[in-house]
Specification:
CATH class: Alpha Beta
Radius of gyration: 18 Å
Order of helices and strands: HHHEHEHEEHEHHHEHHE
CATH architecture: 3-Layer(aba) Sandwich
Strand content: 15-25%
CATH superfamily: Vaccinia Virus protein VP39
Number of helices: 11
Structural class: alpha/beta
Length: about 250
């Protein structure tokens, strides 16, 4: 898993910057009811999406939470006084405190099913009855756009996907969250080129092929043989699901 303390400084640039953040915020807000007056952005990272959520709708009070100090520090510079350090599995908020909770690009990072279940449970707990939880699902699958890069990487070792739409819906139902909508948005600026994918391999982006692993170099060599080394392939499209709290 990547070290997000080290990643914080260059995180936004390496993840598509403002265009990607704008697309993510637009996607979330399509699923958040206009009557919502408070929103918690769990795992807000550098706050690049959180700031857009706060600025895009008058009367919506947005709070950010992240576990990594370096990330939260960047978020706090964008949204002073509204960001806290917090573990998504143990949120420091009262039950029923928010009208909406969002977790964008979070659940796929958690290493065990019980951690995903706990994150969903905590989001449900801090929602008021009738509130909406919005989260990305199937993150890894989104990056498979059917390109020649995907064909090269198809046989690589993989970890189980813990953020599948079915699994998240099951955990949501356990805590009184019922399906309330779905949308997709583009990961603008995230289309992979062969050269960029090789660099990601060498810095540990693919967790089952850590830097120095013999197989990592096998895949790097295959990627280096592809044409158009610097041409980005199509952007991924991410899926957001919404769940409404009963009551």
């Amino acid at each position: 898993m990547l070290d997000y303390t080290e990643e914080a400084e260059g995180y936004d640039v390496s993840r598509g910057g403002e265009p990607r953040a704008a697309a993510a915020a637009e996607g979330v807000l399509r699923l958040v009811p206009h009557r919502a007056r408070s929103l918690l952005d769990v795992a807000c990272g550098t706050g690049i999406v959180t700031r857009r959520l706060a600025a895009s709708r008058a009367g919506l009070r947005v709070t950010g939470a992240d576990l990594t100090y370096a990330m939260a520090r960047h978020a706090a510079s964008r949204l002073p006084g509204t960001v806290v350090l917090a573990d998504c599995r143990r949120l420091p908020f009262c039950s029923g405190e928010f009208d909406a909770v969002a977790s964008v690009w979070l659940l796929h990072l958690l290493r065990r099913p019980e951690h995903v279940r706990a994150a969903v449970a905590e989001s449900a707990r801090v929602l008021r009855p009738g509130g909406v939880y919005v989260t990305t699902v199937d993150k890894a699958a989104a990056h498979n756009v059917g390109s020649d890069i995907d064909a090269v990487l198809a046989s690589r070792p993989r970890t189980p996907f813990l953020d599948t739409s079915r699994a998240v819906a099951t955990y949501a139902a356990e805590h009184g969250l019922l399906p309330a909508g779905l949308t997709r948005f583009p990961g603008r600026g995230q289309g992979r080129s062969p050269r960029r994918t090789i660099a990601d391999l060498h810095r540990g982006w693919f967790v089952t092929l850590p830097p120095g692993h013999p197989l990592a170099e096998v895949y790097a060599a295959r990627l280096a043989a592809l044409p158009d080394q610097d041409r980005p392939r199509p952007d991924p499209w991410f899926t957001l699901r919404a769940f409404r709290k009963a009551g």
